[in-house]
Structure formats: structure tokens, C-alpha cells
Amino acid sequence: MDEFVCLRIIQMNGVDLSLFQFDYDMSFAVFFMNADETIYGRYGTRSDRSDHADRHISMEGLKASMEGALDLHRRYPEVASSLEDKRGAEPRYERAELYPELQNYTPMINYENETAKSCIHCHQIHNAERQGLRDSNNLIPDPVLYLYPMPEVFGVKLATESRATLSGVLPGSAAAKAGLQAGDELLNVKGQPLISQADLQWILQNEGSGEATLPMKVRRDDETIFVEVALEDGWRRKSDFGWRVSTWDLRRMVLGGMVLVSDESGKAGVGLTVKGAGKHGGHAVARKAGVREGDLIVSIGGRGTRATEAEIIAYLLEETEKGDAIPLTLKRGAREISIQYKAQ
Fold it and tell me: If 0-12 CB within 10 Å is exposed, 13-18 middle and 19+ buried, where does residue 133 land?
């Protein structure tokens, strides 16, 4: 640790978004950088529920990534060109408070008590980006909805205690077809050196959503090999974004504030039940229309086939605009109830 100059950022007010681009739904995220703002890599990964927020990170993994960053730093002149794509394209706004949806937030800190409620949280940037698209009646594109895909989308899992070593490869997956094996260490992907799983997610995030090829340099035992993983069209939609904090605002937009979970009874057409229905503001729309916790979703927005909550949200975002009426058929006990609420 004494080889690093450490800085902790506790709010997004004033942060340069052209430099600090990462998965803003993270509970914990790290940047490793040169003093000239070259990014060596990122650390911090999350894939599901809040009680599993640390499932893909570890002290051993962080240490391995720190060692990887120091190695790149020592070889900086040699590797500088391979690091260029670790910095992303220019964002729509260079600072969070410039988003129209966030312009009322100003940094005020009372050091004797607490940060004032005007602090911009990381996840609010995702919210603002999506709200701006929704307000202008534009579709929310897959890279903005299915953010920072996990490597499972092409069939691999990475060990939490290493930089980028495969702990498993799913049979029949794109990774398996390319010849990847458990124990392989990913040295670089698309020419970018990897020091963590977050680095691989960064590459996936910037890959679009259509067919693509990921060239990889791999260490297997004492041998270096090269493979190419082919991503099929729609690969990004294998992600489930339901765990994300920023999904809360998507629920307001198209679910009227409902939180939906899998229904194991098999009685409802969509296979989801209402776990929660908001009570305040835009999150109370479904409740005011008559929805209650425990209701089974038979059909929603004309869809009656089984789906995850994320799939229903994505479907309704594509099929509706602000103000559209969304028909909803529920089953409550032995009764079937048909209501409707408005998209936001």
C-alpha cells in the first residue's frame, strides 16, 4: 500500500466523468492510475443481491490487482499504448451535476455532523442518463440498460483471489467453443492488459451488443496461447440487472413502483409475484391502481409468458412511452383482477 498515493472519493459532485467511468452501481470501486491520468486498471465487481455485494471481491484479489498495477507502472513506457482504451469516450456531461436531472444537487459538507443530503450518489448518474432518454421518448439502448456484463455472458467465471484466472468454463458456451479452460489466466483481451475481473467487464461494456469477436492472450501452465471468443447477437441480454440500485428508478418508470420476484408456484403466466409496491410519489402508482403485495402477475403490458423482472422491465421500456396505459392482470387468491396504471 505504501507504493500508492491513495485518494478516497465519497461523492460524485464535481468528479470528472470523462476520466472516472466505471460501474456506478458498485458498493466499492477502485481505480489504479498514473499521475498523468493513464488508467492501469479497475477493481470492484458485483453481480447480484445486496447481501452478496462482496461475492466477487476479496483482499487476496485486491492485492493481486495492486501488484498487477505496480507491474504495469514499472513497465509504463513499454505498455502505454495498450492502456489507451482503458479510458472511455467523452460522456454526455463532464460532471454529474450538469445532468438536467441532477442540477439541484450542490456539494455541502458539515464535517462535524454528516454529508448534507445534496450529495450525488454514484448510481444517480445511471438514473439521470436513463431518465433523459425516457423524457425524450428515446429507447434506452442495451449498453445503458444491461451495464457492465459479467463474464458469464460468454461462459466463464473468474476466481476472486486472482487477477483474471478462470475458475470455470460453461460447457457449450462461446468460451468453451473457443478452447478456454479452467485455470487459464487472461493476460489481455482486445490488446488491453487485465489486472482484475472489472477490467474484463470494462471491455465488455464498451463492446456494444451485436456480434463481436474478443481476441485474447492466455497463459496456460507455462505456455502462452491466443484464442478468439465469438459473441453472438444479443449476448448482452444474458445479464440480469435486477440487483442494481439504479433499477429502482426503472421500476418507477414502467412497473409503477412494484418489486417483482420469481413465483415458484407456477400458477401465474408471467411467473412473478409482487414482493413490494411503493407508497410514495411515482413509486406509488401501482399501489394506487390497486396492486398489493402477494399478487401474482398473470400478464403485464400484453405479455403473459414467463420472464424475469429484468426481462419485463426491458420489454415495457421498449413497448411504452411516458403516459401510456399499461394493462395488468393479477391473481389474488381465487380472484383474477384486471387494472391498468400509467408508464412514467
Answer: middle
Max CA separation in the chain (angstroms) = 71
Q: In this model, does residue 114 exceed pLDDT 70? A: no
Q: Is residue 337 part of a domain?
A: yes
Q: Contact at 8 Å (CB) between 31 and 39?
A: yes
- Based on the fold, state whether residues 39 and 83 are members of the same structural domain: yes
Helices H, strands E: what count in the chain?
9, 13
3-state secondary structure string across 241-299: CCCCCCHHHHHHHHHCCEEEEECCCCCCCCCEEEEEECCCHHHHHHHHHCCCCCCEEEE
Model pLDDT for residues 71-103, shown as the tens digit of each residue: 999 999 999 999 999 999 999 999 999 999 898
Non-local (6+) Cβ contacts of 114 within 8 A are: none
Written as one letter, the residue type at 191 is: G
Percentage above 70 pLDDT, the chain: 95
- How far apart are the two ends of the chain, measured CA to CA in Å? 47
Contact in structure between 213 and 230 (CB atoms under 8 Å): yes
Q: How crowded is residue 155: how many other Cβ atoms within 10 Å of its Cβ?
A: 21
Instruction: Assess whether 298 and 222 both reside in one domain.
Output: no
Q: Is pLDDT above 80 for 186?
A: yes
41 within domain boundaries = yes
Distance of CA 71 to the CA centre of its chain: 28
Residue 116's pLDDT is: 52
Distance of alpha carbon 13 from alpha carbon 31, whole angstroms: 18
Quick check: 113 pLDDT over 70?
A: no
Boundary (domain end) residue, out of 119, 140, 161: 140
- Final residue belonging to a domain, choices 188, 203, 238: 238
d(CA 297, CA 319): 18
Confidence of residue 241 (pLDDT cuts 50, 70, 90): very high
The answer, as to whether pTM is greater than 0.85, is yes
